[in-house]
Amino acid sequence: MISQVRAIEPGADGTPALESGDVLWLRDQRFELGSREQPLLSSAVLASGKNVSYDPASGAVGGSALRGGAAESLRGMLARYSDEAEALAGRLLPAYRGRVRRGRTSFRPVEVAGRASSWRQDDTRLHIDSFPASPVRGERILRVFTNVNPAGRARSWRIGEAFEDVGRRFAPRLRMPAPGSALMLRAFGVTKSRRAPYDAMMLQLHDLMKADTSYQAEAPQTAFDFPPQSTWIAFTDQVSHAAMAGQYQLEQTFLLPVDAMRSPEQSPLRVLERLKRRPLT
Ligand code: SIN
Ligand code: FE
To answer: What contacts 110, CB < 8 A, 6 or more positions away?
Structure first.
C-alpha cells in the first residue's frame, strides 16, 4: 500500500486520513508575503545549511545571514507563518486541540534539485523523519508545509509505502541500542534529552531506507507536485517521503503524544512495538 495525497477542504476533519498515513493537501491554502517580505525569497538569507529555523517559544532565528531590518522582516514572516499553521492545524485536526505542541518553524530557500549532500542528509531519498539530537520518545512528528515559490514552481515529492510495510520490511534489521548508550549520548551532549529505544530504532530506519539504493528505486512509490500557494500536512515520522525539486518552502513542526491520537495503534511506536514484540519507550 502506498501513502496517498488526499485533497481536503478547509472545513473538513482531517484526523482519520492523517492517522492512516495520508498527506492532507489544501490546494488553496495560501501564505501571503507583504511587500517588505518579498526580498526574503532569496537563498542569500541563508548563512549556511539548508534552512533558516525559528523557535516560536523564544523568538530566536537560526541560520540566517540577515541583519537589522531585514532580519526583523524574516522573524516577522516566520512568526506569522507559525501562528497560521497552528490555527490551521486546530481547524483541521480538532481532536488534537490542547494536546499538540508547537516546535520549530523552518524556511527552505534553496533549490532542492541538484543540491550536494551526504546520503544521510539527502532528503531526495525516501525516508521517515527522525531527529538525531531531539528524541521524541514515541511522540508524533506532525508537519505543515507551504510552497511559497513566486515563479510558479511546484515542490515535487515522492511518497512511498505505508509505515506498516516499511516497518515489516526493515524490522528484522532494527537493533535495540546498547545498554547505557542513551545515557552516554545525553552526557556528551549528542542528544538534548534521553533517547528511548524507539528513537534509536527510528534513526536506524531512516538510515536503512536512505542507504538502500535498490529500495529507493524499487519501493512502491508515487510522485506528487505540490503547486505554489498550496499547503500540505503529514505525520512525517510515518509517511515515507522525499523532496525532489522546488525552492522556497515554509514548514511548521508540531509534536503530539501518541495517546492524543484517535487510533494510537497506527502510530510508528505501536507498529514497531508489535513488530519487535517489546515496549520501546
Ligand atoms: C523533508 O522533510 O524530507 C523535506 C521536505 C521538503 O523540503 O519539501
Ligand atoms: Fe523528511
So the answer is: 43, 46, 50, 51, 247
Strand 23-26 to strand 5-7: parallel, antiparallel, or no bridges (unpaired)?
parallel
For ligand 1, the distance from its centroid to the CA atom of residue 276, given in whole angstroms, is 28
- Tell me the pLDDT tens digit for each residue of 156-199: 999 999 999 999 999 999 999 999 999 999 999 999 999 999 99
Q: Residue 156: helix, strand or coil by DSSP?
A: strand
**DSSP SS3 for 268:** helix
What pLDDT score does 210 carry?
98
Nearest-10 crossing angle of helices 197-211, 163-170: 90
The whole-model pTM stands at 0.97
What's the CA-to-centroid distance between 87 and ligand 1, angstroms?
22
Judge whether 187 and 268 are in contact, CB under 8 Å: no
In this structure, the residues whose C-beta lies within 6 A of any atom of ligand 1 are: 108, 123, 129, 155, 236, 241, 243, 249
Matching residue, cell 521517515? 128
H-helix or E-strand containing 249? Answer: strand 249-256
Neighbours of 77 (CB within 10 A): 22
Collapsed DSSP state (helix, strand, coil) of residue 276: helix
- In 3-state terms, the chain is what percent helix, strand and coil (to 5)? 35, 20, 45
Grid coordinates representing 267 are 502510530
Separation of alpha carbons 281 and 279, rounded Å: 6
CA distances to 25, 55, 85, 193, 280 from 269, in Å: 25, 26, 25, 18, 7
